[in-house]
């Protein structure tokens, strides 16, 4: 029997190659398993947050301490405000006049001048003074307060007389201007006689000034100054029937 040695060698070599390939594959598999996994990426840095600004509150203003007024001082202050209101109305500043009169009323609800001025602001001139009137030509020395004293008997009623004539600024009264005066025209010479009679003291004038004297009274512990002296002078003139002089004294004191 003849054996083909070359054929057996070829088969053996094939088996060796297959075994080697399998061994190499096993080694590669073992090497792959031994390789560590890649490291994870580093975490992203946290965002930088700026600290919140510190708000410092401004100190609250402290209200000044207002000394409490005595009743007499409140009355005097109310009278001064009422006199200041006269100037505001003379210049046609009704808004400022209202504000001052409201302050005066809060200080002294019984202030006669403040009440009288406020009534003129609120009243209907036609209903208050009537529809009957006569024409009057303004003279060089006339003023609305002078005409109110002459024809209405009270110089402080100048504002309603101005409203009766649709005049917004009573101080702007020009000579030659024609006004409506409520009532009927007095006979010739009667106006001059009435003006002379009003300039003289009349019975009861002192009584009419008593309330004003109480209004301008000041606390006995308060020293008298120039303003209070003028106020007292105005009261004395009012008692004597000199309303124009009293008004000027009151205005100067204010």
Provide a quick synopsis of the model.
With 254 residues, this protein is mostly helical. It has 11 helices and 2 strands.
Describe this structure in words.
This protein has 254 residues and is mostly helical. It is 56% helix and 4% strand. The chain has eleven helices and two strands, in the order H-H-H-H-H-E-H-H-E-H-H-H-H. It has helices spanning 5-34, 71-90, 94-107, 112-122, 125-129, 144-152, 158-164, 190-199, 205-215, 226-239, 243-253; strands at residues 133-137, 178-182. It has a two-stranded antiparallel ribbon with strand order 1-2. The model is unreliable at 197-224 (pLDDT under 50).
**Unreliable stretches covering 5 or more consecutive residues:** 197-224
CA radius of gyration is 52 Å
Query: Helix segment count?
Result: 11
**What level of helicity do the residues show?**
55-70%
Q: Taking strands numbered 1, 2, ... along the chain, how are they ordered across the largest sheet?
A: 1-2
Give the class from helix and strand content and strand pairing: mainly alpha
Encode the helix/strand succession as letters: HHHHHEHHEHHHH
N-end to C-end Cα span: 160 Å
Task: Note the overall shape.
Answer: rod-shaped
Mean pLDDT: 76
Strand content: under 5%
Secondary structure tally: strands = 2
Largest sheet: 2 strands, antiparallel
């Amino acid at each position: 029997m003849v054996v083909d040695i070359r054929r057996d060698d070829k088969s053996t070599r094939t088996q060796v190659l297959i075994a080697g390939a399998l061994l190499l594959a096993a080694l590669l598999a073992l090497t792959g398993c031994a390789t560590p996994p890649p490291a994870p990426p580093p975490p992203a840095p946290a965002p930088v947050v700026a600290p919140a600004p510190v708000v410092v509150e401004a100190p609250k203003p402290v209200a000044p301490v207002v000394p409490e007024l005595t009743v007499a001082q409140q009355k005097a202050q109310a009278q001064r405000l009422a006199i200041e209101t006269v100037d505001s109305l003379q210049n046609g500043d009704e808004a400022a006049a209202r504000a001052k009169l409201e302050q005066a009323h809060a200080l002294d609800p019984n202030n006669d001048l403040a009440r009288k001025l406020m009534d003129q602001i609120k009243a209907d001139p036609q209903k208050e003074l009537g529809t009957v009137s006569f024409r009057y030509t303004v003279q060089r020395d006339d003023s609305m307060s002078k005409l109110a004293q002459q024809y209405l008997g009270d110089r402080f009623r100048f504002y309603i007389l101005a409203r009766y004539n649709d005049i917004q600024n009573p101080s702007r009264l020009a000579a030659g201007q024609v006004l409506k005066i409520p009532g009927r025209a007095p006979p010739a010479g009667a106006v001059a006689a009435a003006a002379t009679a009003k300039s003289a003291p009349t019975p009861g004038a002192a009584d009419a000034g008593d309330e004003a004297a109480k209004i301008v009274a000041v606390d006995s512990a308060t020293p008298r100054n120039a303003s209070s002296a003028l106020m007292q002078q105005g009261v004395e003139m009012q008692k004597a029937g000199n309303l124009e002089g009293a008004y000027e004294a009151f205005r100067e004191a204010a």
